[in-house]
TrEMBL record:
<dbReference type="InterPro" id="IPR041725">
    <property type="entry name" value="L-asparaginase_I"/>
</dbReference>
<comment type="similarity">
    <text>In the N-terminal section; belongs to the asparaginase 1 family.</text>
</comment>
<feature type="active site" description="O-isoaspartyl threonine intermediate">
    <location>
        <position position="85"/>
    </location>
</feature>
<feature type="domain" description="Asparaginase/glutaminase C-terminal">
    <location>
        <begin position="305"/>
        <end position="421"/>
    </location>
</feature>
<dbReference type="Pfam" id="PF00710">
    <property type="entry name" value="Asparaginase"/>
</dbReference>
<dbReference type="Pfam" id="PF17763">
    <property type="entry name" value="Asparaginase_C"/>
</dbReference>
<dbReference type="InterPro" id="IPR036770">
    <property type="entry name" value="Ankyrin_rpt-contain_sf"/>
</dbReference>
<feature type="binding site">
    <location>
        <begin position="184"/>
        <end position="185"/>
    </location>
    <ligand>
        <name>substrate</name>
    </ligand>
</feature>
<protein>
    <recommendedName>
        <fullName>asparaginase</fullName>
        <ecNumber>3.5.1.1</ecNumber>
    </recommendedName>
</protein>
<keyword id="KW-0677">Repeat</keyword>
<dbReference type="GO" id="GO:0009066">
    <property type="term" value="P:aspartate family amino acid metabolic process"/>
</dbReference>
<keyword id="KW-0378">Hydrolase</keyword>
<feature type="binding site">
    <location>
        <position position="153"/>
    </location>
    <ligand>
        <name>substrate</name>
    </ligand>
</feature>
<dbReference type="GO" id="GO:0004067">
    <property type="term" value="F:asparaginase activity"/>
</dbReference>
<dbReference type="InterPro" id="IPR037152">
    <property type="entry name" value="L-asparaginase_N_sf"/>
</dbReference>
<dbReference type="InterPro" id="IPR036152">
    <property type="entry name" value="Asp/glu_Ase-like_sf"/>
</dbReference>
<dbReference type="Pfam" id="PF12796">
    <property type="entry name" value="Ank_2"/>
</dbReference>
Length: 659
């Protein structure tokens, strides 16, 4: 169990969270047998040394074979359990409070949440939970981190948001998505705050909870949890969202609407991102995507000198004055209707003007849930005249947490902070300036083909757009890509193999298109149905500039270490220096051992490949690692009497001793 103050030593948590599969997943090389070095040696010698396409494909083939079982596609989700009704039981006084029973135990008892059979067969780690198989989706493997103390969300505040954000950062590369189990009362505040704090987010973060505890038979928590896990593990939705009662909603657009109903959350000013019924319908075009070429990061500072002031008919100037007093630095002013303020109350207006002159940022948001603020009425216009800025249709939760986030950016000027407050940075607001005048190419083609119905149209889009994108990428034609976007094609769309435009651009080496894709929010994390990511594609194609760019954007390889060991030793044995460089650029350690305990250096020596040895030594690989027979690379070279290599290794050994 992990406390709010310290989730524990990350390395120990990583141990606990070892998702490595059991030995029954085999690839060609593994099937040779773990200890049979002769076989291994022969295999490496037999490999065709000349044929480039075969070389290109060997990593892909290995990946395919590795994942050849029916259940082959998996995704990993980290669940951060903060508390809330979902895990509550009646306490001695008969009031609901967090249960003392670990949630994981409860999950293990529930066959809807835990596939005991799969767990026994496939994972060695007892802490891994496995969701039962859901047709057409990846198998979701998940782990639950239970914070202590578990909290009713009414007791949560910024320190908890910071803790959650930092934990997501800590484990970002090890998981495909994150689910936060949370109480419903302040869930919208947490989801809003996280949406701003998690900068350049590229993976799903889904907040959910329930109205009835998971310990009760009628709980809505089980389905909320299952839905959140499936979405987090399968969909390219790189936002902080809320999943509740079969709806996926942008987190910073949510408001808690109901104390009693299962349908507790609403998104009054933005359509739901997905609806889960007989099918899972995600509105991919409405997903907000970070369009900067930057790595994911967390802003863990928040400015707490912010507040919400709701205007009411007889509010006094004393109330307004005391609210605006130092140290207040930012105020969300909840006004009437479309942002209207009592224009006949000069006493109040004076107080606001004074505060604004003292550089307090005042943001005008509406008390109405639906719609936003504008300058339609004189009663509203008066506020812009005294420096109050427009909050458009932000929810109070989003406006408050955004202000707290923006004010903590000390590198920005006051005007820049105000400008950001009025700009849509995470999909939290819509201004009138947004026009949706795009044409829909697929609809036009559907009409010509006399297709009717939404389903047929969606199928057509799934065939038409990726095919057109692919041909534009191969031709290197960015203008064509832009034109297609103008015709309504979603650049993030995937084909039937779950490959996106970035996969193609990486494999054919189109750097400018890769850059364009990243600037337009295409996911670097998506893995196709053969588990290949765009970064992996760039590695297989030895596209070094593209690998650098993708890494800059936070892309990382997610393959099992042993798989990577196998492809590295394979490359070292064949003298594929460029490939070794590709993996190094992609962040892989060249000391990685393979499935039979060899390092790339061992493989290079075993194959008498002096070029590989030279390259690996130039990268300062560790000479002391021993194979399963307890031999270092130099001992293997001695045994094989490879004099040139022995000399090289010895001189490198001496150099490293001198340093
Ligand atoms: N349904 C809930 O989770 C309400 C609870 N009081 C909480 O917010 O933690």
């Amino acid at each position: 169990m992990d406390g709010w103050d310290d989730l524990g030593d990350p390395s120990s948590l990583e141990d606990k969270f070892d998702f490595s599969n059991g030995s029954d997943n085999s690839i060609e090389i593994v099937s040779i047998g773990n200890d049979n070095f002769d076989h291994r040696f022969k295999y490496l010698q037999q490999v065709d040394q000349d044929e480039r396409p075969l070389h290109q494909d060997s990593d892909r083939r290995a990946s395919l074979t590795l994942n050849s079982s029916e259940d082959r596609l998996e995704s990993k989700v980290l669940v951060l359990y903060t508390g809330g009704t979902i895990g509550m039981e009646d306490n001695e006084q008969g009031a609901l409070a967090p249960s003392s029973k670990p949630l994981t135990d409860k999950i293990r008892e529930n066959p809807l949440l835990y596939d005991r059979h799969y767990d026994v067969c496939k994972t060695q780690d007892g802490n891994v939970l496995v969701l039962p198989r859901v047709k057409d989706t990846r198998r979701v493997l998940y782990k639950v981190v239970e914070y202590t103390p578990l909290l009713d969300s009414s007791n949560m505040c910024q320190v908890h948001w910071i803790k959650i954000a930092n934990d997501i950062k800590e484990y970002y590369e090890s998981y495909d998505g994150f689910v936060i189990l949370h109480g419903t009362d302040t869930l919208s505040y947490t989801a809003s705050a996280l949406s701003f704090m998690l900068e350049n987010l590229g993976k799903p973060v889904i907040v959910t909870g329930s109205q009835i505890s998971i310990f009760q038979i009628r709980s809505d928590g089980v389905h909320n949890f299952i839905g959140a896990l499936i979405l987090a593990g399968n969909y390219d939705i790189p936002e902080v969202t809320v999943y509740f009662n079969h709806k996926l909603i942008r987190g910073n657009r949510t408001v808690k609407m109901s104390v009693k109903e299962f349908d507790a959350f609403d998104s009054p000013n933005f359509p739901n991102l997905a609806k889960v019924g007989l099918t899972i319908d995600v509105n991919m075009k409405s997903i907000f995507r970070s369009s900067t070429i930057k790595k994911f990061d967390v802003q863990s500072q928040l400015n707490l000198n912010v507040g919400i002031l709701r205007i009411y008919p007889h509010i006094s100037n004393h109330t307004v004055r005391s609210f605006m007093q130092s140290p207040m630095e930012g105020v969300i002013l909840l006004t009437y209707g479309s942002g209207n303020f009592p224009s006949n109350r000069s006493d109040l207006i004076d107080e606001l003007r004074l505060a604004s002159d003292r550089n307090v940022i005042i943001v005008n948001c509406s008390q109405c849930s639906r719609g936003g603020t504008s300058d339609t009425y004189e009663a509203g216009k008066i506020l812009s005249g005294i420096g109050v800025i427009n909050g458009y249709d932000m929810t109070p939760e989003a406006a408050l947490t955004k202000l707290s986030y923006v004010l903590s950016k000390s590198e920005l000027t006051l005007q820049q902070k105000k400008d950001i407050m009025m700009t849509n940075i995470r999909g939290e607001l819509s201004t009138d300036a947004i026009h949706n005048n795009e044409l829909d190419l697929a609809a036009a083609v559907a009409k010509t083909l006399h297709l009717s119905g939404r389903q047929e149209l969606n199928k057509l889009k799934k065939i038409l757009y990726p095919a057109l994108f692919q041909s534009a990428v191969r031709e290197g034609d960015i203008d064509k890509i832009k034109e297609m976007q103008n015709y309504g094609a979603d650049i993030s769309m995937t084909d039937f193999d779950r490959r996106n435009i970035l996969h193609t651009a990486c494999s054919v080496g189109k750097l400018d298109i890769v850059k364009y894709c990243l600037e337009n929010g295409v996911s670097v994390h998506i893995r196709d149905n053969y588990d290949i990511s765009p970064l992996h594609e760039a590695v297989i194609a030895d596209q070094h500039d593209i690998i650098r760019l993708l890494r800059h954007c936070g892309a990382h390889l997610t393959n099992e270490p042993m798989f990577l060991g196998d492809v590295l030793t394979n490359a070292a044995a064949r003298g594929m220096i460029k490939r070794l460089q590709s993996y190094l650029l992609a962040g892989i350690n060249l000391n990685q051992v393979d499935s039979i305990g060899l390092t790339p250096l061992h493989a290079a020596v075993l194959n008498n490949n002096i070029e590989s040895v030279r390259y690996l030594l130039s990268q300062h690989v560790d000479l002391t690692i021993e194979n399963k027979n307890g031999q270092s690379a130099i001992e293997v070279a001695n045994q094989m009497q490879l004099n040139d290599i022995i000399e090289l290794l010895k001189s490198s050994e001496t150099k490293s001793k001198v340093h």
